[in-house]
Design brief:
six-stranded mixed β-sheet; binds adenosine-5'-diphosphate
């Protein structure tokens, strides 16, 4: 394995004394795509800002290509580019916005070509857009110009914070294509926080699921939030909206979140292990994890979406399809709490 392009050790970040991110260890391989998923407030933007060397972690170290780095590491800052969630354009033309990063990095004669090349990567023609002022752009175009400004500098790492949130479908597609092209053409490492987890499953080499500032898994698990209630028989459970009972071992506190991994699925609940807690649901989506070729199913029980990886060999006699009713089981003793 190559030397990681990023390595994080014992990282902790706090705002006003309140810890929002705590990561023991994380390594990112060069020229790979890493996805960050997690609910709002789980620490994705904070992690991207720390990796983008915009902020200094309260504690712990970030290594870039084996070297300890921080907000004043100029070489590393020039090699890493962050597209924040709400990108900011200077009150100038698109050309000036895109050329700025090139000038800061000392580019001269090739600036015009690189600005036009970057605009065309995000599907905007230089002829129409180079002179356009910042205020004459739609939301999707603003996001694409902001991305073009990052692509123009050909960064070694591109950090994308919700790059397609709130933009039109055409812009979202162009943004996705342009990011992948940077990886293909220049080997740019991509680290992407997105709620579009289906896209992340299609493109990522690795996915980290962040929850309350900690990495809680690889994203294939189901996280179920409390409150949990003690039942008459002394068992703990949550009642789903369709009245099915989701049994769990005693939670550390009634509002803890349960992580359920390794669901097994079948058409007939009777064939599941007797140790399983069995629920009935309806397949709402099948998704492909492109790197492994494996398929996972999203199953709706009550109002909760459960995620189950399907066996590598599909059962052709009993195929799953969205709309089909299935049974799925999990082992309550294997639940982890976060
Ligand atoms: P996400 O990107 O997953 O939505 P964030 O990294 O933005 O999460 O936020 C993580 C937590 O840190 C949240 O509780 C948020 O309110 C808090 N937070 C983020 N930025 C600041 C800040 N500048 N000052 C204080 N708290 C912050």
């Amino acid at each position: 394995m190559n030397q990681p392009i990023f390595e994080i050790n014992a990282l902790k970040h706090a705002y006003a004394g309140s810890t929002v991110l705590e990561i023991e260890h994380l390594a990112v391989q060069p020229a790979s795509i890493v996805g960050l998923i997690g609910p709002n407030g789980s620490g994705k933007s904070t992690l991207l800002k720390l990796l983008g060397l915009i902020e200094r972690p309260t504690r712990g170290q970030i290594y870039f290509k084996g070297r300890k780095v921080g907000p004043f590491s100029d070489d590393a800052r020039h090699a890493i580019s962050l597209l924040p969630q709400e990108p900011f354009l200077m009150k100038r033309s698109c050309f000036e916005n895109i050329a700025y990063g090139l000038r800061v990095r000392g580019h001269g004669p090739d600036t015009v070509d690189r600005v036009h090349e970057a605009l065309s990567l995000v599907g905007l023609s230089g002829k129409d857009f180079a002179r356009r002022p910042w205020y004459a752009l739609s939301g999707g175009e603003t996001q694409r110009v902001a991305l073009a400004a990052r692509l123009a500098v050909k960064p070694e790492v591109l950090l994308l914070d919700e790059p397609t949130a709130g933009v039109d479908a055409a812009s979202a597609q162009l943004i996705k294509e342009a990011a992948l092209q940077a990886l293909r053409q220049q080997g740019t490492t991509l680290i992407v926080a997105s709620h579009d987890w289906q896209w992340l499953y299609e493109i990522c080499d690795k996915i980290f699921h962040l929850y309350r500032g900690r990495i809680s898994g690889s994203g294939r698990e189901t996280i179920i939030f409390g409150p949990w209630r003690k039942q008459a028989a002394g068992k703990w459970a949550k009642t789903l909206s369709d009245q099915q009972m989701l049994y769990v071992p005693a939670p550390p506190d009634p509002s803890a979140a349960a992580v359920i991994d390794g669901l097994s699925v079948c058409e007939d609940g009777a064939t599941l292990s007797s140790e399983d807690n069995v629920l009935r649901g309806i397949v709402s989506r099948l998704s492909l994890e492109r790197k492994t070729g494996r398929v996972f199913a999203t199953i709706l029980a009550g109002d909760i979406s459960f995620t189950a990886m399907l066996p590598p060999q599909p059962n052709r006699a009993h195929p799953l399809f969205p709309g089909k009713t299935v049974y799925f089981g999990y082992r309550p003793d294997q639940i982890k709490w976060i």
